[in-house]
Amino acid sequence: MTSHLRPDGTTFPPVTPDPPVPPGYEEPVLLDCGAVQQPEPEADPTDPPD
Questions:
Q1: Which of 12, 35, 37, 49 is the most buried (most CB within 10 A)?
Q2: Distance from the first to the final alpha carbon of the chain
Q3: What is the CA radius of gyration of the chain?
Q4: Which tens digits make up the pLDDT trace of 3-31?
Q5: Is 9 left (phi over 0), alpha (psi -120 to 50) or beta?
Q6: DSSP for residue 44
Q7: Cα 20 to chain center, whole Å?
């Protein structure tokens, strides 16, 4: 495996920053993918009420 890390801790080729955002660009809305809602199970009519 080849490493781009030099002995002094820098990398080659150097890391370049992200380009600027184009004019009029709107950041897309991201949905929360970590919380998947499960439907609540229906109550069993044979169970006594709480």
A1: 12
A2: 63
A3: 26
A4: 777 888 887 777 788 899 999 998 888 77
A5: left
A6: P
A7: 21
Check if the beta carbon of residue 49 is closer than 8 Å to that of residue 40.
Answer: no
Q: Which two tokens stand for residue 4?
A: 């781009």
Q: Mind giving me the DSSP string for 5-43?
A: B-TTS-BSSPPPPPPPPPTT--PPPPP-TT-PPPPPPPP
pLDDT at 23: 93
Asked if residues 37 and 43 have their Cβ atoms less than 8 Å apart, the reply is: no
CB distance 11 to 5 below 8 Å: yes
pTM of the model: 0.27
Residue 13: both structure tokens together: 């080729």
